[in-house]
């Protein structure tokens, strides 16, 4: 936990990180987009990339403990689960974990938990805001270990375009790109990927879960990413910046 003054300083610093000017033409692209939202988060699908899904009704704290308990050298555990954990921990460690279309914080527990367990530098969730209670554009919570969970209420393309910090980023997308209606706006999709490419340096990555749209990967590869298939992540796909 942190005091109010420290939290306000951190919020102001985060606002500065997201203060890059946005090209005027992007405003028209954003105005013309309309994303379909899922009634349920992708937590269960997502966590098969690690091992077992969260238990019913888990909070972020509950799921962090579950993942930590599963992160063992148990001889009875499938080797695939161990390989997934080692791969994701190496990929995410010390990077900003930026969750696009992060959803309702009270229900979307998997991505924040994975960021913490894989020793990310910070979790940043970006979403337009799925509940009326999400009135603040930026909020920050710090757990007892000092790990920071930040939430930004904004359009994804707007937030990513305004983000200044190039390098040391992992972008996570869970399902937003799997709706054909979301990808009919190719201009929005390709512009979003272009901006993610700007922010990713060699070794940074985009982790996509729940995507069944093949050409999403094609667009990523056209922007300097290559899919890493060294570990079977079931319904997860990892694209590494070259």
What would a concise description of this structure say?
The chain is α/β, with parallel strands linked by helices and 242 residues long. It has one domain: Rossmann fold (3-Layer(aba) Sandwich), CATH 3.40.50.150.
Description of the molecule:
The chain is α/β, with parallel strands linked by helices and 242 residues long. It is built from ten helices and eight strands. It has helices at residues 4-17, 24-31, 43-47, 60-70, 79-92, 110-117, 156-162, 180-183, 186-199, 214-222; strands at residues 96-100, 122-127, 138-142, 148-153, 169-174, 205-209, 225-228, 236-241. Strand 7 (225-228) and strand 8 (236-241) form a beta hairpin. Helix 7 runs parallel beside helix 9 (186-199).
Question: Which key features would you list for this structure?
Answer:
8-stranded mixed sheet, 18% strand, 242 residues, globular, single chain, alpha/beta, Rossmann fold
Layout of helices and strands, plus pairs?
Blueprint: H1 4-17, H2 24-31, H3 43-47, H4 60-70, H5 79-92, E1 96-100, H6 110-117, E2 122-127, E3 138-142, E4 148-153, H7 156-162, E5 169-174, H8 180-183, H9 186-199, E6 205-209, H10 214-222, E7 225-228, E8 236-241
Parallel strand pairs: 1-2, 1-5, 2-4, 5-6
Antiparallel strand pairs: 3-4, 6-8, 7-8
Helix pairs in contact: 4-6, 7-9
